[in-house]
Write the structure tokens for this entry.
Amino acid sequence: MSAALQTIALEKRFGGLTATDKVSLTLRHGARHALIGPNGAGKTTFVNLLTGVLPANGGQILLDGQDVTRKGQIERARLGMGRTFQINQLFGAMTPVESIGLAVSERMGGGSDFWRRVGTRSDILNEIAELVERFRLTEVMDQPTRLLPYGKQRLLEIALALASNPRVLLLDEPAAGVPEAERAELLETLGELPRDVSILLIEHDMDLVFAFADRITVLVNGALFAEGSVAEIMADRRVQEVYLGSEEHD
Amino acid sequence: MTDTTFATPLRAEPAGIERRAARDLLRRSRCKPAEILFWLAAAASFFLLPDRHLLLSEIAILGLFALSLDLIIGYAGVVSLGHGAFFGLGAYVAGLTSIHLTGEPLAGLALAALAAGLLGLLTGPLLLLRASDLTRLMVTLGVAMLLLEAANRAAWLTGGADGLQGVMIAPLLGRFEFDLFGTTAYAYCLIVTFVLFLIARRVVTSPYGLSLRAIRDNALRARSMGIPVGPRLLAIYAFSAVIAGIAGALLTQTTMFVSLDVLAFHRSADVLLVLVLGGVGYLYGGLIGAIAFKLLQDWFSALTPQYWMFWMGLVLLVIVLIGRDRIDALPRAILRRIRKEGRA
């Protein structure tokens, strides 16, 4: 059986700089996989390669066994590649209900429907209600997104990605910038994400990584540095040196 | 707007959530009392101001033209400084139709719409290559200039600088003759504008319209959600071109004349000014802006025939500097103060 997402010797160069250096990574079905690495390790470049924001210079990307290396951003999204952004990318003037409704209706192929009034399809309303509740957005569901507290915006960021019903979900630092008071709610929601979605978590926050992931890949200078279960990575002395506890060594 | 002030239960049952979601989604397409009032006033103007039908026709045409621009600027975030290209093309096609094919006004309207829509489909992709506002302004301006020069050169077809002679429009529906006072013309313009407004309103409150607003707000996110940004923008651009073309055709048919002036730069600039005057992104901006623009123009040019452009410019500056939202909030603020003093 093929993996949910696989990269084979994926490469990206910016001039003389190699941002992604022949990275081969396998994301199993239903995975909770974390990608960590120090600043500048090339984590965000890697996500941009996977989602098609940047074209790769070499290697392959397989989504559920299908080669998507040459496909564009929109097509990959339609094939089931979902993502959230490190910095919120939301629709500020729209309400959470409208944003989620848009994602749901686009997935159901109703997005180019120009003669139906928005809000008249009960199957879509049903899914909106479910997502709104799952992501704890009920209280703020009909307020403009730009007025929501940051934690709620962060939740909406993930809700939008999940509303497209992705097979693979790339979470780019989902907890970044969330104030302490709103953190628990976010972590809880992350823990409750459906098991059939395979998730790659890109994160700085080690507490979150240890709580969420069952497998960890470490990226250093754009290249694969180590990979293993949480326990293996925690025990790996090389990883500790470059990343986890480097300052404890001096 | 007031919905948010209601206290909401912390955990509503799913059916309740669905109902609230439906209400939120339907909020934009719901017909507001002010809208009915607006169109009743428009209909009333036909009966109450019989001696101003010529001016009113001009307002309706300019309003429709500005509405078409609002579709791309206000709803899709695509700016244009050359929307006059579609207006002018529609005007010429309507004129040529009456000379070479038929004087029937509705046929001219349909052909003008078709031609303008095709031009929109052909030139639209140029706007998608580089999605920056500055490039879009330049590309649209360039297309409009090319069209103006083409019309100027093709004198055998367009009459060049002399204008197109011999435009004759048959009675509307075979019954209503276009008269000197513009009575038929105004009824015609008003009804066409109203029908196209309804269609445009339907489109912008559809799921397709929602996706346009999403693209305007954040194209990056829209793409990552799998929304085909390019085709969606192209479709609204062509639709907007169709409406602009119809507005141009209305001008030809109601004045029975076309000249290069319909393709001139000031058309594109004026319509942008009208839209800014009325406000973008709610469809009425173009219509209200056209009323304000034409009335101010009428008033200023009666007051100071030479310097009316100066006063127009000043009004525009003041409106832009004060900001639309503050102007929109003014009536409500005054009302609140009156109520407060009434209570005290």
Chain A has one domain: 5-249. The beta strands of chain A are 5-14, 17-27, 32-36, 58-63, 66-67, 81-83, 168-172, 198-202, 215-220, 223-229. Chain A has a mean pLDDT of 87. Chain A touches chain B through 51 residues (CB under 8 Å).
